[in-house]
Amino acid sequence: MARIAIVPIALGLLAACTETTASAARVRADAAARLPKIRSAALLSLDVKEYLVSAGGVAEFKEDWSAAAREAIGSALIAEFKARNIELRRVEVAPETAEEVDDLRALSQAVTASVGFPGAPFEYSLGPVAPLLDRYGVDALVFVVGRGRLTTYGRRFLAGFSTGASEVDATQVALIIVDRSGDVVWYNTRGLRGGDADLRGGGSAAGLMRAMVEDLPAHKP
């Protein structure tokens, strides 16, 4: 398994209209044989956090915003996976598996941090997951890591006044699919930059999740 280290997801700020960033999808070399076997999956973790940046540049974590973004992303993902003939289910983590799920969540976050390293092969594993798949009756696990950075009007004004460069809202989401072997078979990350980057709104979340899931390799008959 490739060595991984946990670092924050970078959120670049661009002075532009709202846009969806380019796909950064990666697949294992044998994904073409593995992905068609996935007909159901458990949405095991939605680690999505929203922050509001004040005029002074202080980022404040917003729990209610984060909860709304998680709900919007989860609903959008379920719909998009259904369109790809994959049943995605939200699951409630049982107390006896909470520690195991926390470990898997931490590993999935580490994968999102290391996938983009230059020259790194796409060979990641979260370890044994078959018992969890059997428990939930699914073929795969899905992990989502997202960070949103929304700015106040005062922040945007001061940034433009002091540097001449506009500062805009930015959101980045990473999606990981893990099959029965415990291997990460598919990974993608995309983001939104601009006035409609707020994922609390169903439209923004739906558009971003659609773009991400459309990057999945098409099933061959």
Which helices and strands occur, and which strands form pairs?
Layout: E1 19-20, E2 26-27, H1 31-34, E3 40-53, E4 59-61, H2 63-83, E5 87-90, H3 98-114, H4 130-136, E6 140-151, H5 153-163, E7 170-179, E8 184-193, H6 202-213
Please tell me about this protein's structure.
The protein has 221 residues and is an alpha+beta fold. It has a single domain, classed as Double Stranded RNA Binding Domain (2-Layer Sandwich), CATH 3.30.160. Helices cover 33% and strands 26% of the residues. It has 6 helices and 8 strands; from the N terminus they run ββαββαβααβαββα. Strands 1, 2, 3, 4, 5, 6, 7 and 8 form an 8-stranded mixed beta sheet that branches. Strand 7 and strand 8 form a beta hairpin. Helix 2 packs across helix 6. The longest helix is centred in the N-terminal third of the chain and has 21 residues. The protein is globular, with a radius of gyration of 18 Å. The relative contact order is 0.27.
Instruction: Describe the global form.
Output: globular
Compute the number of helices.
6
CATH C-level label: Alpha Beta
Unreliable stretches covering 5 or more consecutive residues: 1-16
Fraction of residues in H or I helices = 25-40%
By secondary-structure content and strand pairing, the structural class works out as alpha+beta
CATH topology: Double Stranded RNA Binding Domain
Tell me the domain tally. 1
Largest sheet: 8 strands, mixed
Number of strands: 8
**Average pLDDT figure:** 84
Evaluate the radius of gyration. Answer: 18 Å
Percent of residues in β-strands: 25-35%
The quaternary state of the protein chains shown equals: single chain
What CATH architecture label applies? 2-Layer Sandwich
- The N- and C-terminal alpha carbons lie at a distance of 32 Å
What is the string of SSEs from the N terminus onward? EEHEEHEHHEHEEH
